[in-house]
Fold these 2 entries.
Entry 1:
Amino acid sequence: MTSAVQIRNLEKLYPLAGGVVAALRGVSFEVPQGDFVSIMGPSGSGKSTLLNLLGCLDRPTAGEYFLGGENVAEMSDDQLAEVRATRLGFVFQSFNLLSALTVVENIELPLYYSGRLNRDSRARCHSLAKRVGLGDRLDHRPAQLSGGQQQRVAIARSLVNDPRFMLADEPTGNLDSATTLEILQLLKELNDEGRTIVLVTHEPEVAALTKRTILLRDGLVQSDELRTPGAPR
Ligand code: ADP
Ligand code: MG
């Protein structure tokens, strides 16, 4: 089976006035389809940089990235935008919802941006809102929702193009522990549907609910461990 993701010797250098920052210094791993990976590591170890590369939001300085078997380096900026819009779903720590829009309008937003709004969009967004447990909050605005509910909206928005690969940067970083578990349960259900998920977290309780943890340190993979299903935590 084709891997969801294969990266080899990925490097990312940020040239700054005071010198170059090497955020990633040769990272290699493979993510099979259907995996649920947590990326951990101290602040500054390169987690967000790696997630941005995996999400085709940025290009590596060196190294290879195959997404679903395709070489990302050979894609034009337009092709990358198409990949982001149709094959990837993004979830962020700060939810990134638009405060003036309702729940349903926020979920619809990627369709609007990518010119994919059509007569079926509204019904599809309603069912996604229901899917994440917000069927009775369709016309609420973000300020009228709890943090956990806002993250549910963001997850529904990330699903609007039915991506097979989801990326989440500290998705529970702003949530209390009970809400964190609810959001992880939702992500686990999406993984059970066959979606590949890579999430960044600094919380061991979150990593414990994923199938595998990759630990970064100073821009390198320090460890990469599978979690045995059912093993005591
Ligand atoms: P993490 O998410 O693990 O905290 P980051 O990937 O955000 O780490 O950052 C890794 C390193 O790269 C840090 O030293 C950070 O200061 C640096 N860095 C990140 N983004 C940029 C940027 N846009 N320009 C310059 N340096 C950056
Ligand atoms: Mg980060």
Entry 2:
Amino acid sequence: MNEKILIIGASGQIGIELTERLRAEYGKEAVVASDVKATTDVDPILLEGPYEVLNILDKEALHSVVKKHNINQVYLLAALLSATAEKNPAFAWELNMNGLFYVLDMAKEGILNKIYWPSSIAVFGPSTPRVMTPQDTIMDPNTVYGISKLAGERWCDYYHQKFNVDVRSIRYPGLIGYKSAPGGGTTDYAVDIFYKALQEGSYTCFLSADTALPMMMMSDAIQATVQLMQSDRSRLTVGGAYNLAGMSFTPASLTTEIQKHLPSFTTHYAPDFRQAIADSWPGSIDDSIAQRDWDWKAEYDTPTLVAKMLEEIKKKI
Ligand code: SER
């Protein structure tokens, strides 16, 4: 069957690059971008193909967009991220969970045949082993965002087991890209730092110098997503979400790497409430199951990421 894809939350950090990639892969008309934002407020890239204004919490509107475009695959990216979710727990839970149920139910009813839904390293918590965190381990998230992602993973697996719904997911690490800005996440510093390095020569970081977190270049995350979605389902042994790793760094080690290009660059540290969120997450991830099941391999490491980010952001500003 030909893919007819709907991306929900297309105007977010992942959505913009994923829309570009899926349109290149399947053709512009085969990929409908949607977001709660009006056309005047989104990146013009999204308007190069079909675009719908859609609030994921409006179930009827969702059904009518799916019907109008004969959609059979959904990438559901709309969510509040970790830092924003802590400020508005009730809305974060509603947004992060209800949208997922609407889409899972459409697959259960046979309207959709494949779903992508992102999970996160936020599913792990303070009791999780922090170094090379395995696929299956203790999970005790203590953030609203992490709780919603872990619950979502379990629901995805449930719908797969009970109703044979083909839903696939990745636990993304912090995602670093230059085409679109992140919003409301704890790993966002690792994007902002490049703009400040080039524009101001110094950066004040909201995490402490030695906070190690798993990170990944956006192009790798997009490649992983497409690769997972195109994999033969019979190879997939994980019903929830796959661990995925690119690199790990701390604000201090990232600063050192940036200084190789900009020797006078300095970072100051002023940890805020996001420090506690970061402290509850792993420092590095074991993604050997993704490597085995769908041949995953990241392209970027920290030095190549830093060189690429500086080169591309320099062009932009
Ligand atoms: N990057 C996200 C955040 O910081 C984690 O999924 O919230």
